């Protein structure tokens, strides 16, 4: 739970520290506003990524399911600047149990909304999908741009970071791994 009063006090202090006057008209409401914003951006800190997850036992064959181009916005934990892009998820159901498709995007949202690293986000998404569905395998690719690399520091706008995590049969079975890679590849540039 974000302590909004404490966050607002900190933002006020930060404004003073950078040489601003937190009492000038344009900034008077900023600390409370930013505190509310953090409550939204960090809502994933107190949410279970698997709440609401629904499984359907349709008795269908276990074939790969891919949900691609799931947009997300997260905050890099080193600079508290946004990194954002798309997550692509492939999973192989077990015993015909399939996940509600929107739940995959909900998992991404929850895990993105906290101070994060792209690599950890990628791994946490794969683990959550695996736990949600007890799948035979999961492969996740995340492609993102980090504002801490574009608007400051090394300043390389357009540089994209691609991270991946495979577990279960999508890691160990060469044929399945290749099939998942082929389905994900066109979308991960
Ligand atoms: N592996 C990884 N690194 C990240 C992520 N987000 C930001 N970083 C990096 O975290 C590093 C922090 O490096 P530091 O040297 O402590 O910070 P800095 O002096 O601001 O570094 P520069 O960005 O190079 O100016 C930088 O290289 C960032 O690019 C991420 O999601 N994953
Ligand atoms: Zn950063």
C-alpha Rg (nearest Å): 20 Å
- Write down the domain tally: 2
Could you state the CATH homologous superfamily of the largest domain?
Answer: GTP cyclohydrolase I, C-terminal domain/NADPH-dependent 7-cyano-7-deazaguanine reductase, N-terminal domain
- pLDDT < 50 runs, ≥5 residues: none
Spatial order of the strands forming the largest sheet: 5-2-3-6-7
Distance between the termini: 36 Å
Blueprint of the fold:
Layout: H1 4-17, H2 30-41, E1 55-57, E2 65-76, E3 82-92, E4 97-99, H3 101-112, E5 115-116, H4 118-133, E6 137-146, H5 147-150, E7 161-168, H6 169-172, H7 174-184
Parallel strand pairs: 2-5
Antiparallel strand pairs: 1-4, 2-3, 3-6, 6-7
Bound molecules: guanosine-5'-triphosphate and zinc ion.
Structure description:
The protein is an alpha+beta fold. It has helices at 4-17, 30-41, 101-112, 118-133, 147-150, 169-172, 174-184, and strands at 55-57, 65-76, 82-92, 97-99, 115-116, 137-146, 161-168. The strands form two sheets. The protein has a five-stranded mixed sheet with strand order 5-2-3-6-7, with helices on both faces. Strands 1-4 form a two-stranded antiparallel sheet. The chain binds guanosine-5'-triphosphate and zinc ion. Guanosine-5'-triphosphate binds at residues 76, 78, 117-119, 146, 148-149, 153-154. Pathway: Cofactor biosynthesis; 7,8-dihydroneopterin triphosphate biosynthesis; 7,8-dihydroneopterin triphosphate from GTP: step 1/1. This is GTP cyclohydrolase 1. Keywords: GTP-binding, Hydrolase, Metal-binding, Nucleotide-binding, One-carbon metabolism, Zinc. Zn(2+) binds at residues 76, 79, 148.
């Amino acid at each position: 739970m974000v302590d909004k009063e404490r966050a607002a006090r900190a933002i006020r202090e930060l404004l003073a520290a950078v040489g601003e006057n937190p009492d000038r008209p344009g900034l008077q409401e900023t600390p409370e506003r930013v505190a509310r914003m953090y409550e939204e951006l960090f809502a994933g800190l107190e949410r279970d990524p698997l709440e609401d997850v629904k499984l359907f036992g349709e008795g269908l064959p276990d074939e790969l399911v891919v949900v691609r181009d799931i947009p997300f916005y997260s905050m890099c934990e080193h600079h508290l600047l946004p990194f954002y892009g798309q997550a692509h998820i492939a999973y192989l159901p077990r015993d015909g149990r399939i996940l509600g498709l929107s739940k995959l995007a909900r998992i991404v949202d929850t895990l993105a909304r906290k101070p994060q690293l792209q690599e950890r986000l990628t791994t946490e998404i794969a683990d959550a999908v695996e736990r949600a569905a007890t799948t035979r395998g999961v492969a996740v690719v995340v492609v993102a741009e980090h504002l801490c690399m574009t608007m400051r520091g090394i300043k390389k706008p357009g540089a994209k970071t691609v991270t991946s995590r495979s577990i279960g049969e999508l890691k160990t079975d060469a044929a399945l791994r290749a099939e998942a890679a082929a389905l994900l590849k066109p979308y991960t540039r």
